[in-house]
Amino acid sequence: MTIAIAFKSPLHEMVSTTVTDLWNDSSSVEELTYAIEHGAVGATSNPVIVLTVLKKEMHLWRDRIHAIIDENPTWSEVEIMWQIFSEVSVNGAKLLQPVFEREQHKKGRLSIQTNPANYRNAKAIVEQAREFHKLAPNMQVKVPVTSAGIDAIEEATYHGVNINATVCFTVPQALAAGAAAERGLKRREAEGHDVSTMSPVITIMVGRTDDWIQVLAKRDGVIVDPSYLPWAGVAVMKKAYRLFQERGYRPRLLAAAYRHQLHWTEFIGGDLVLSIPSEWQRRFNASDVAVRERMDVPVDPAIVEGLYSHFEDFRRAYDEDGLTVEEFDAYGPTVRTLRSFIVGCHDLMALIREEFMLPNPDIKR
User: Fold this and answer.
1) What CATH number should be reported for the domain holding residue 134?
2) When you count CB atoms within 10 A of the terminal residue's CB, does the N or C end of the chain come out lower?
3) pLDDT tens for residues 207-220?
4) Is residue 303 part of a domain?
């Protein structure tokens, strides 16, 4: 007799029947609680996400923000902002603590992003990464895959930081980050340190890879089958995944920056992480899409060839040697993403300044 297993949702079915992990792409209490109920074993944050969380859940943070300001009378809005940023992230980590314990410290972490403005300064990145690592036992620290970031990934990993390599869109970036994390792990092992609970991940922001190809198609007037465009990030991820397996890298790949269904369905079954925004989780869970393993199904060669022959930057993203480490910083999606993350920091500071520290006196409150 066959016993039917009841799953809460398609995403719950995915995490229950495959090795693919789900993360929540936010540290929002409401959103993370929902994700954990459906099987999430991690979450992420960055300045843009924290700004969104504060706007959505300000009732949970207003008193604490006032207290931080009162307790630190000499702090500028910069220091206040990073303290709030840290506390929002630590709050998310607390929600994941039971998962962290259940999974014997291999999962259940909250990713917190280092200052994106430090993308050229490996020393500054590592220093902040080590401080963030101490905020909670289940922190994971985001380091950008820039030229300086590659050095920082190795060094932070060597110091025991569980890194999440971010601002990454290409096969060569993912390989360089994976190799750097491997070097860090091996250095720790050589000195007798335990790495059994370390779980570095290498993010590929698949949606931003897609975004860039679409920008180029419009900017440069490229005519190509429009149905090919949403496959750019999927093709990059699947190739990187195959190469990670071939090279035996211990860091796992992570898909982020969701734009459409393929960023879920095409990765089901892979030993990787899907960091999905709450809105997309709810849409996927409300769908009738079959949960079927597709990670090992190659992208149609005609699609890959169509993208490869029309877009130089797809070739740079897809080929193992398409970019040198020195070229990472100037790659289009890297520039676009760093700009948005840095603006997110400034917007978060502006919220603190205008709503709490220097509110407009012209407005009666």
Assistant:
1) 3.20.20.70
2) N
3) 999 999 999 999 99
4) yes
- Cβ(345)–Cβ(339) below 8 Å: no
CA distance 165 to 157: 11
Q: Specify if 69 maps to a domain.
A: yes
**Of 326, 287, 322, 290, nearest to 308 (Cα)?**
322
Residue 83: how many other CB atoms lie within 10 Å: 18
The reply to whether the predicted model has a pTM over 0.90 is yes
Work out the mean pLDDT of the chain and round it to a whole number. 96
One-character DSSP codes across 238-252: HHHHHHHHHHT-SSE
The torsion region of residue 108 among left (phi > 0), alpha (psi -120 to 50) and beta comes to: left
**Which segments within the chain are labelled E, that is strand?**
21-24, 42-44, 109-113, 139-144, 163-166, 201-205, 252-256, 273-276
Buried b (16+ CB within 10 A) or exposed e, 164-180: bbbbbbbbbbbbbbbbb
